[in-house]
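Exercise: predict the fold of this chain.
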Amino acid sequence: MAAAGVNIKPGKKPTKAQEAQIAKHQKAQQAAMIAQQQQQQQQAMMGGGGRGGMGGRGGMGGRGGGRGAPQQAQAANGGQPMTEDQIKKAYIVKQQRWLLFLRHASKCQAPEGKCQLTQQCHVAKDLWKHVLQCLNPRCEYPRCIASRELLKHHQNCKDARCPVCGPVRSAMIKQRSHAMMQAQQQQMHQQGGPAAKRARMDGGVMMPPPTQVKGTVGTKRPGGEGTSLMECFSPEEVRTHLASLRLADKDVTAAKGQPMSARRRDAESEKAIAGATESACQACGVERLTFEPPPLYCYACVGRIKRGQVFYHIPPHVTGGEVRKDAWCNPCYNQIQGSIEVEGVKYPKNQLAKKKNDDDLEEPWVQCDYCNCWYHQICVLFNGRKNTGGEAPFTCPSCILSQLDKKERAPTTNRPSSQLPASELPHTRLSFFLEERLKKVMTHERNERAKLLGKPIEEIPAADGLVIRVVSSVEKTLEVKKNFKDAFKDQNFPERFPYRSKVLLLFQKTEGVDVCLLGIYVQEYGSDCPAPNNRRVYLSYLDSVKYFRPSGIQVATGEGCALRTYCYHQILIGYLQYIKQRGFTSCFIWACPPFQGEDYILYCHPKEQKTPKSDKLREWYLKMLRQAQKEGIVLSLQNLYDEFHLGNQNHDIASATELPYFDGDYFPGVAEDWIPGIQKEQAELAKKNKGKSAKQTTATARKTGKGKRLGVGTPEAELDVELMKKLGTTIHTMRHDFIMVHLAHQCTQCRKCIADDNRWYDSTPSASGAAFELCQECYDVEQALESHEKKLTTGRDLVCERVDPLPDVKESDEVINSEFFDTRQAFLSLCQGNHFQFDSLRRAKHTTMMVLYHLNNPSEPAFVATCNSCQRELEPGKGWRCETCPDFDICDDCKRMKGHEHPLVRSGGRSDRGPGMTEEDRRVRAEQIQRTMELLVHATRCKDANCGSPNCTKVKHLFKHAANCQLKAAGGCQLCRKMWTLLQVHANGCNDANCPVPRCKDLKAYRQRSQEQQDAKRRARYRVYMQEQQTGA
């Protein structure tokens, strides 16, 4: 430090006289510090349990101790040599004191010589100003380098047991607590008002307000904080939740089918937590828990970059501060020549940074306002999005129990929007139908189980708290891929297929908390959709996690499966019944299992949950479908291979234009990949056969079985034949994975649905179980043939039956927009970006809570902001945003230490403590979005300079500005960014192939390319999987 009266300007080198005066003062201060070593050490270690936010562990500290500490310590020890341990303690205490002094100087506003702590404070202020500006690695300013290193360590240190940072944080908490108590007491004397909110320290350490110190009673009645779901629990639910955390690894829970008394449960719970260390979470008894790192894929080959492997990425300084997640594996990086292009921007290869895929991210912590104990946020179901500015109140479960017992807290009855359960999500006709049906079948199964076991119904475990909701229902359009469209343009194959995409979720209330158990994505192609997709449904994705309760119970209704499987089967059977009633005729299922380490919908499955093999998954579906057949919902089952005669039976292979064309399905993807290769082979073959006669060509075409139907010897006919042959050869061994479910009668000959017509069917069932039935037209054609030519009806006893007409497929449910569930990849990205995992029950509870929070608060931002400098996640209201740079956020520490070239504004955070959105709120919000999108299209087409629409001119000006602006959105132009946001929202819901809105086609094409990459990866891995299965067999 420096002596009193020494004034050194920032950035200036002190004179020799000033240096001597500073050194003299430093020596006196260090001697006084070491003389009080023992007392200071004890005080410093008293509150060493302080915890950082979310990062990893830090080290010992910087090198700010200077020289001569052992010699000075020896002098302060009466001249006796100090032990190594004593020297280390003296060094640590010195670091602590110096760090506290620097932090004091950074915030002290007292004039020179007026600081109540020390007369030399202004000298430390000068040093602080110098440190903030200095970048010289060999700076000679007194204590500059040592102070910079110490501050850098403290900024990044998250180790609760760090001997330097832990006591410093604890001392700062006590210091601020004392200051706030004085201010609060003064305020209460003057105004009698409520206590001020607590502050939050740097690094995520939260300080309790003085009125919430243990042993005191606050002026405000506890309750209604709105930050933890446990505030809504009953005392018994709190105890049950805590016991489930502490006994998670013990086979003594009621979930195993062996009920435990409340007394024994609480005793086991207390025993589990008693052995935990002081620095452990007071709920689960564990210290450091890390998240599963999000999967990383190569931008070039789309292969997964495994844990521990080296990859290359674009660092933020290359992109002007923008954080990009693109990565290249080592082989692909070696193949890059010169530069790499990403979304139209070229990046030189030498600017890519090398990194190892070994990042660890620790679970965040939160401190109770009353008892000062620390908890994992996930353990106590804390909603980090409500922690605006780091000042949100929090009461731990132990204090909640104590306050409830003492009648100091009233139970939360009216939940705010951040704590609404799944049952508060709006119902649709589909969800209501499924939920009511599920209740009936589950009640029936429980009664049957009671009869089988000979027990009263009250003693039979029930699957309570099941909730089904449709969380997304939007109109989409499937564009036919280019190669397929060009190849069959002369056969009037449609260019697009409209459909309704829906997402269904199953929740169950477990220990007072909703847990998402099942997710289903479906595509519904209505009666207005052209063939071959007319009245068809595609079950595109299904995913579940193994937290269904009660577990380990076999059903008693004869299905021979677990209660969990029975429940999921009944939901699917109910859905098939619902779509059949609406007029759909068939459902298609591709039984493609997820691959090891991959997730379809729910991110990060439990390790003990096995991924099913293809045969197991197929049998899972077929078992459900056979039960649906027994109930008369499903009329017949078939696979794609046999349905369309891909085995070339009787030379009547169907045309490729007859196969269903679904979004993300196997056939559209492989057809698009195969067509160029087949066309190339045909061109080469045509050159070789140039001398052949037309008669020979015709004969060759007739041998393929396609010449008569598609035109003799035409390139389109030959392409169709080869495409279907290749499909049949490829899927022959896995044909049973492509399941066709018929909900209506279908003609065996022409494969058309029989409705409002006569149906001729064989009254004698075949040995294979396959149904034989003819429509009236095919029956008449068969009867017109000579007796020796009849093949279909020979040997069959056909009976005629009149079939009722099918109802028009009309969507009765309103559109439900959800940016999180628009695609399964969007929901996976939400979970991966926010570490919403399902790999344990405690995390599944917290993840579901956050999913419900976003569903009930659709205007909330989906992703946590990240500091562009240190990459730390920013809590709501705790960061700064640049209005010039695109997507630039910075934390308080980096803003103070490094600064930014442009003006910064404080990031906002909403603190809505009201109830969730009502039906009217949802309707108004949807109408506002719809009006905005309609205005966007209108302004694009409007040529009237005096248009009567008041906002048309504004949108036109936006268009004009975006076209002429040199800065653009990437350069930070706010108007361009606003325009870009509107265009993205529009493109996300636009189904017009010829939409006039600028960039709409480009945005839809980009989204389609991203989806095609995911689909291609799925097909490729499925093919590899089947090859491995065949090799193993």
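Check your answer against the key: The two ends are 77 Å apart (CA to CA).
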